[in-house]
Amino acid sequence: MSIVVSIPDVDKTNWWIEQLQALLPGWTIRPIHDPGDVEKVTYAVVWKPATGAFLPFPNLKAIVSLGAGIDHVLADAELPRQMPIIRTVGTDLTQRMREYVALHVLRHHRDIPAIAANQREKRWQQLVVPPATQRRVGVMGLGNLGGAAARTLAALGFETLGWARTKREIEGVITYAGDSEFSEFVSRCEILVCLLPLTVATTGILNAALFERLPKSASIINAGRGQHLVEADLLAALESGQLSHATLDVFDVEPLPAEHAFWPHPGVTITPHTASLIDAPTGSRIVAANIERFEREGSVPDLADAARGY
Ligand code: NDP
Ligand code: OXD
Q1: Whether residues 219 and 106 fall in one domain
Q2: Which residue in 114, 126, 152, 200 could disulfide with 98, CB within 3.0 to 4.6 Å?
Q3: 310 within a domain of the structure (yes/no)
Q4: What is the predicted pLDDT for the residue at 154?
Q5: Catalytic: 107?
Q6: Which residues, 6 or more positions from 204, have their beta carbon under 8 angstroms from its beta carbon?
């Protein structure tokens, strides 16, 4: 009975192994590059695993994604077919994302980037903004994270809209579903938050056509995945004034390269994929509980649907 852990960062790998080992004392838990007896490995706990990482383990029962997204697992062209993928989700992850979305939507709503620029110039300028009840904010993706974010925004008083693949009912939120209602949804969002999973259908969804449909000088917040955004289209939309600001937590290439145009851009706020970054002590409790339940029942509620892509 053993578990391998694969995370690109060595210190983080050791941190997770230490925490998981304390919760699962009957298991042997080792880094994936030093797995011991490969026949005994039944679970792989991973974040951005290498291509072919799972091939050495003939008795693997499930892969545990150290996150809500599974795109980093599905990216492996040699992923064993039909392998169950368990997502790491829960109230801690949701709470962190609610904080992030509230913080940055309020920051855009109250024009804090312009106020900060004024302070740098020692300029006293009273910018008038409407109350939240007169500000329309849209959330793309209404799952665990997007649904919680939309509820939080509605509770803050924003006129809140949400869009998902299928129709979702959320109190206080005007919801839209599917491709047919996409244009109408987008055309109403003064601040747009992306909390979609990365799939074939959502890759590149934050593009020039979408930016054109948004109200003039709208802003966006992307905490989904970097590949949702067409970076050149964002730069052009900021340049033309169609968009006023973008807050980005996720990037096509992470870490964001030092020479990237986003770093010095006054219209871009960067956070380093920390919107809802789970820590090992918290995350290990969720992972350990999921592994124990999968052992007992052969399934868990947090199983991803690999065919759907999320
Ligand atoms: P869920 O699976 O719970 O929800 C996904 C939502 O997206 C659902 O509402 C789903 O629609 C909707 N959706 C999927 N495909 C489409 C589509 N083609 N068109 C419209 N809507 C679509 O995911 P989570 O809320 O748990 O996580 C969402 C994503 O957030 C993750 O996949 C990950 O990429 C990102 N994330 C980022 C973090 C960060 O720190 N930046 C942290 C954690 C996650 P339906 O309801 O109809 O199924
Ligand atoms: C996740 C993430 O998918 O942190 O959980 O991005």
Answers
A1: yes
A2: 152
A3: no
A4: 98
A5: no
A6: 227, 228, 229, 230
